[in-house]
Each structure stands twice: as structure tokens, then as C-alpha cells.
Specification:
CATH class of the largest domain: Alpha Beta
Strand content: 25-35%
Helix content: 10-25%
Order of helices and strands: EEEHEEEEEEEEHHEHEEHEHEEHHE
CATH superfamily of the largest domain: QueA-like
Radius of gyration: 21 Å
Number of helices: 8
Shape: globular
Structural class: alpha+beta
CATH topology of the largest domain: QueA-like
Distance between the termini: 34 Å
Length: 377
């Protein structure tokens, strides 16, 4: 059953509460500056019953003023000349279950990518003991029936497996037959239920490739998008296939030493033109999610103009970065010590963001993938 608790919004226009931590004393390029304590009950386990009923913290990044609103208020909060930047990547059912054919020991995997020419998949692998080259894994479907074999071909430098399915079928077809939606581990230990097939997918998802949802987009419904376009807002769709790196905390102290994970992204000519036209008419470019930010910022020229672009995105945005292609950001509340929290802090200021998170916890906002959102303008 989906969560339907909707506390009344606080009066608009309140100033940020003073945080219990002296953030100003911290180094914005040290990962410890992006740590915070979150009560476990604030981690959303289910989406709200109606996507647009999620709560929305509106943060003015210049004045620090906040409002407590709802996603459904976006038509009131945004301007007719604004453009929303949407990541239309679709989450693939990348979580795999099966067993080692020879020993029958249980095996779990996460599909990461495949080579269309060779048919070889790269997967994260979890099992007891070491898998040998040439060994096979028997995949099982949702009814635990035996299915296709995966032959272990090699290991990558970072320890992932390269496997080849023993079947004449495309990766997408096999994943639909044998895969599960790969929920983050903080959602009831990555449960596997059919309801998440729909709820962990944006309504505008179009291109298979992500192993995690671009979660800010989960708040939109088709009626809400219709309301926004009828008001005069424009939509620009980009694609960034979200990789497994989005789940991982930053492992180094000094942010300047962090190596960002790489993801495939693309912007077509129509989306680029829509965003260029937005600037020309004085509108704002509002990125829906950090993946949309990284896509347009990777593609933008120094003056902020865009053209069609396809490439690998490894852009790590931290304080000091000069944003070229966005004027606002709609985003969820992110994990401590994550590159996503660092990006949001680069956009609005670390001290302001950490104080806003403190305010969100005090006001019982719901955090992470199925949680509430903030609009930073």
C-alpha cells in the first residue's frame, strides 16, 4: 500500500532555521562537510499515493528563504517562459538471480551494460566463493524457473564479471524475462515486488539504460505535465543512463581526489534549441534531477549555448564550479557523503543546503528515492 500521509504545509516565506551544527567552520572540499544524521524513519519506503502529492521545499538560493509546498504547486511556482529539463532514461530490470550451475550455490547479479557486437554483459556479481572463467550461472525467472545460462568470460579491472548469455536474444529481451527492478538497498534491503515496476519509473521514460531511476522525475504525472505546458512552460528531454555509481558514497576525504563514475548521455538538436530559445526569451532552465544537470553541463559551451551532443559523462560538480546551462533545480533529498549532495551544494551553497536539510528533518520530510523534493531557484 502506498504512503498517503500529507502534513499541512507550513506558511510560505519562513527563513531557514539555524542548524545544530556550525557548518561555516567546515571545509567545503572535504567530504566530512557533507555528512548528516538522518533518522531511519525519514527514509521513504513507498511513494506517495499520487506522485504530485509529495511535499516540496522551495529554496531561494540567493536569499535563503524557504517555502513548504507540494509538487502539485509547480504551475504556480514556475513561470510561463521556463523550460523543464527531463531525463527520459528508462530503468531496466537489471537485478538478476540464479545459481552456479556446477555447485548450485546462490548467485545475485546486477546488469550494468552490454556490448551489442559481442553480446557480452558486464555485471556486478555476489556469490560465495570465486567464480572461475568458463563457469556458468543459471538465471531464474520470477517464478524461480531455470532459464538461460551465463558463461563467465573474464573479469574487468574493477572486479566486475564479463558474462555471455547462451541465448539468441537481445539484452533487453532477456532482462525483461529474468530481471527485477534494482531498488536501492535502503528501500527494505532492495525488495523485489511488482508494484515498483511502475512506481520506480518516470511517466516520460523512453530509452532503456538506467540501473537507478532519475528520481526527481518520479514526482511528475501526465496531468501535471499537461498543466505546466498549458501554462506556457516548455519541456526539453535529454538522456543520461544512470549507473551504479549513483548508489556509492564518495570514498576519499578530499573532493579534488574523487574520480567520478562514467555514464552515457545524449541531447538531441531539438532539446538543445529549446534550451537556447529559453535563454533568448528570458526564461529559466530548470533541471529535473542531478542527472539532467550533469547532462546539459557536460554538453554546454562556455557561454551556455547547447547543440546536439552524445558522449560519456564523467563530470563531477563540486563547490567552485561555474554553472553554464541551468538556472534552477528540482531534486530529491540525497544521501550523506554522496556526489549528488555535493552537486546540489555547489549550486545553492553548502551551508545553505545543509541548513535546509536540517530544516527538512525537523519538518518530517521524506528522504531519498521515494521521498519528497526541493526546488532550488
Amino acid at each position: 500500500m502506498k504512503h498517503d500521509s500529507r502534513p499541512s504545509p507550513l506558511a510560505p516565506g519562513r527563513q531557514l532555521a539555524a542548524s545544530s551544527v556550525s557548518f561555516a567552520m567546515m571545509n567545503e572540499h572535504n567530504i566530512a562537510s557533507y555528512d548528516y544524521d538522518l533518522p531511519r524513519e525519514r527514509i521513504a519506503q513507498e511513494p506517495v499515493a499520487v506522485r504530485s502529492d509529495a511535499r516540496l521545499m522551495v529554496l531561494d538560493r540567493y536569499s535563503g528563504t524557504i517555502q513548504h509546498r507540494y509538487i502539485r504547486d509547480l504551475p504556480e511556482l514556475l513561470h510561463a517562459d521556463d523550460t523543464l529539463i527531463l531525463n527520459n532514461s528508462r530503468v531496466v530490470p537489471a537485478r538478476l538471480l540464479g545459481y552456479r550451475t556446477r555447485t548450485r550455490g546462490r548467485w545475485q547479479g546486477l546488469y550494468l551494460r552490454s556490448d551489442a557486437n559481442t553480446g557480452v554483459w558486464e555485471v556486478l556479481s555476489k556469490t560465495r566463493g570465486r567464480l572461475e572463467i568458463g563457469e556458468t550461472i543459471t538465471l531464474q525467472d520470477r517464478n524461480t524457473r531455470d532459464g538461460v545460462l551465463l558463461e563467465v568470460m573474464a573479469r574487468t579491472d574493477n572486479g566486475n564479471l564479463l558474462v555471455k548469455p547462451q541465448a539468441d536474444a537481445a539484452a533487453g529481451e532477456l532482462l525483461r524475462q529474468f530481471g527485477w527492478i534494482p531498488l536501492p538497498p535502503y528501500i527494505r534491503d532492495g525488495r523485489m515486488v511488482d508494484a515498483d515496476v511502475q512506481s520506480y519509473q518516470t511517466v516520460y521514460a523512453a530509452h532503456d539504460g538506467s540501473v537507478a531511476a532519475p528520481t526527481a522525475g518520479l514526482h511528475f504525472t501526465k496531468p501535471l505535465l499537461k498543466q505546466l505546458t498549458e501554462k506556457g512552460l516548455h519541456l526539453a528531454e535529454v538522456t543520461l543512463h544512470v549507473g551504479i555509481g549513483t548508489f556509492r558514497p564518495i570514498a576519499v576525504e578530499d573532493l579534488n581526489q574523487h574520480v567520478m563514475h562514467t555514464e552515457w548521455g545524449s541531447i538531441d538538436a531539438a532539446a538543445a534549441q529549446t534550451l537556447n530559445d529559453t535563454v533568448s526569451r528570458g526564461g529559466r532552465r530548470i533541471a529535473v534531477g542531478t542527472t539532467s544537470v550533469r547532462t546539459v553541463e557536460s554538453a554546454a559551451q562556455d557561454d551556455g549555448t547547447l547543440q546536439a551532443w552524445t558522449g560519456m559523462c564523467d563530470l563531477f560538480i563540486q563547490p567552485g564550479y561555474r554553472f553554464k546551462a541551468i538556472d534552477g533545480l528540482l531534486t530529491n533529498f540525497h544521501l550523506p557523503r554522496s556526489s549528488l549532495l555535493v552537486l546540489v551544494s555547489a549550486f545553492a551553497g553548502r551551508e545553505r543546503i545543509m541548513q535546509a536539510y536540517d530544516e527538512a528533518i525537523q519538518n518530517e520530510y521524506r528522504f531519498f528515492s521515494y521521498g519528497d523534493a526541493m526546488l532550488i531557484i
